[in-house]
Design goal:
alpha+beta, FAD/NAD(P)-binding domain, 11 helices, 21 strands, globular, binds P-hydroxybenzoic acid
Length: about 400
């Protein structure tokens, strides 16, 4: 088998890359370890930055997103018993859209398959060789047959636990946080129209949603928590305490999904090794507090597609040579923002009284100063793709 770009992983990064390349006449094959049903049902985050939505619109992927996505023009920070809105529309003239990552994945798969795209689900034993000049991806297909995919370049879009990062020895920057998030999806109508990030002495809580009938909620918990040890009643009680504010009521309902997510800041440098290009979670992880994971994956493949097209058409290497540095600038900006939001909103296990006062001071300043609120808003709605500060 032969293709121009061999893509490992059918998450948002791999699927969007395949779509962007196809629009420029570049062919690709996507190899995915899981089944289509599995990747379409995997519950992940759901905040799309402004530049993400603009790109999806520009490349014809936003029909359902424009119908069903929820436009938000701000968020609330809740602390010390008070609620403080950060008005994105006023501060930076842009907003975000709440639309589940698995909805983006469904739209991408449908668009690729409608267009004759080649996605192989349920592949195993994926190997990558020949990265100096003529890459070959080995894999076992869903039918058990061993295959070889020869390509010009390989895109490693196989997430944090994938194999492509292991094809070389990048320098790794890794920090784990001493807490995790217990997340639930509940069949309960949202009672508030925007996201609420709460800093409470018991720990952080986040109020989000997925649609007119579904609320998405998170609680800070210790890192090795087993989700099964929290009963639904305990979860609702704790959410009620941590999110409490005047005039706010939480609609309770059946919990339809429950899971624990670890919190980590991780970057692998560089994001390129010969003919292999890493994108998305394969190269970097952010703690979810800034809602940046999927957006970074999308920004990476936007830059990558624009670099690969001139390379594959007429051997122009300038874009692929700049790929890693260009992406890493934006990645580190998002790493900083996600770390900053995380540090400002979570309670450290040692509950250091100085740290607590510093957090409250930062929160008060962020909501009181237009300059500070604008910085939060600008980072939250998303910096432009390509070159970053
Ligand atoms: N071979 C083929 N596919 C693989 C392999 C492998 N060896 N290992 C992992 N995969 C697949 C996974 O099953 C997954 O579907 O690669 C895909 C990677 O997708 P994501 O994890 O969604 O990563 P990415 O596309 O970079 O998107 C980043 O995902 O984790 C969230 O918060 C993160 O929202 C962000 C987004
Ligand atoms: C979500 O809706 O799942 C969500 C929202 C905001 C975040 C993280 C997750 O910061």
């Amino acid at each position: 088998m032969r293709t121009q770009v061999g893509i490992v992983g059918a998450g948002p990064a791999g699927l969007l890359l395949s779509h962007l390349l196809a629009r420029s006449g570049v062919d690709s094959v996507v190899l995915e370890a899981r089944s289509r049903t599995y990747v379409e049902r995997r519950v992940r985050a759901g905040v799309l930055e402004h530049p993400t939505v603009e790109l999806l619109r520009e490349v014809g992927l936003a029909d359902r997103l424009d119908r069903e996505g929820m436009r938000h023009e701000g968020i609330s920070l809740r602390f010390d018993g008070g609620d403080h809105r950060i008005d994105f529309a006023d501060l930076v003239g842009r907003g975000i859209t709440v639309y589940g990552q698995q909805e983006v994945v469904k739209d991408l798969i449908a668009a690729r398959l409608d267009d004759g795209g080649d996605i192989r689900f349920e592949v195993s034993e994926v190997t990558i060789d020949g990265l100096a000049d003529s890459p070959v991806i080995g894999f076992t297909g869903a039918d058990g047959r061993r295959e070889e995919l020869h390509c010009d370049v390989v895109a490693g879009c196989d997430g944090f636990h994938g194999i492509s990062r292991g094809a070389f020895v990048p320098e790794v920057f890794d920090r784990q946080y001493p807490f995790a998030w217990l997340g639930i999806l509940a069949k309960a109508a949202p009672t508030h129209h925007e996201l609420v990030y709460a800093n409470h002495p018991n720990g952080f809580a986040l109020y989000s949603m997925r649609g007119p009938e579904i609320t998405r909620l998170y609680l800070q918990v210790p890192p090795d928590t087993d989700a099964g040890t929290w009963s639904d009643t305990q979860i609702w009680d704790e959410l009620g305490s941590r999110l409490a504010a005047e005039g706010f009521t939480l609609n309770e309902g059946p919990v339809i999904e429950k899971g624990v997510t670890g919190m980590r800041s991780f970057v692998a440098e560089p994001m390129r090794h010969g003919r292999l290009f890493l994108a998305g979670d394969a190269a970097h992880i952010v703690p979810p507090t800034g809602a940046k994971g999927m957006n970074l994956a999308i920004a990476d493949v936007h830059v990558l597609a624009e670099a690969l097209v001139p390379f594959l058409r007429h051997g122009d290497e300038s874009g692929i040579d700049a790929y890693s540095d260009t992406c890493l600038r934006r990645v580190w900006r998002a790493e900083h923002f996600s770390w900053w939001m995380t540090s400002m909103l979570h309670v450290a296990p040692d509950d250091d009284p100085i740290a607590r006062r510093l957090q409250l001071s930062q929160l008060r300043y962020t909501v009181a100063s237009r300059a500070a609120a604008t910085s939060l808003a600008e980072n939250y709605v998303g910096l432009p793709h390509g070159v970053s500060p």
